[in-house]
# Entry
Amino acid sequence: MILPIVAYGDPVLRKVGKDIDKDYPNLNNLLANMWETMYNASGVGLAAPQIGLPIRIFLVDTSPFADDKDLTKEEQELLKGFKKVFINAKILEETGEDWTFNEGCLSIPDVREDVSRKDTLTIRYCDENFKVHQETYDGLLARVIQHEYDHIQGVLFTDKLSSLKKRLIKGRLSNISKGKIKVEYRMRFPEMKKGR
# Structure
């Protein structure tokens, strides 16, 4: 089932997600709905807070990036086959050079900005079967994981912008929270909810 994506301004996007256990109700159904919702919105990642749940789940499928001609064949292959569920994730370390990449977010449609992040991370997480993994990623994979991880920490990519950039996009963010935006997927807007 395609779920509405929570828009910028909803308090759930600012909550630090809670860990879940393998008995979380209807987990498989939730994950299936999250995949369907993400693909419907042409996303490469989706976190539970973006569908209104303050829990530590996010999923990533970087295959849309695999067509980027600027990448090496190895990078394209890696991105093409990368589809994972991250439950109760904890970033253990972020290292390497800072690098800037233009990011966007399904909860903040039509806003894209350059964000600087470390290029390598080590993360511990459970997969959908609650098997524990500890892995290190770099480049674009690390970037997507960092972005989605921020969601379960109550952080948005706009928080990482300079105060000048934040001032420049303030009106656009306000319009998103009021539902004054056209999107090709279902959204839930915080200020429209209050008026009902």
Summary: Strands lie at 5-6, 45-47, 57-61, 83-105, 108-126, 132-138, 187-188.
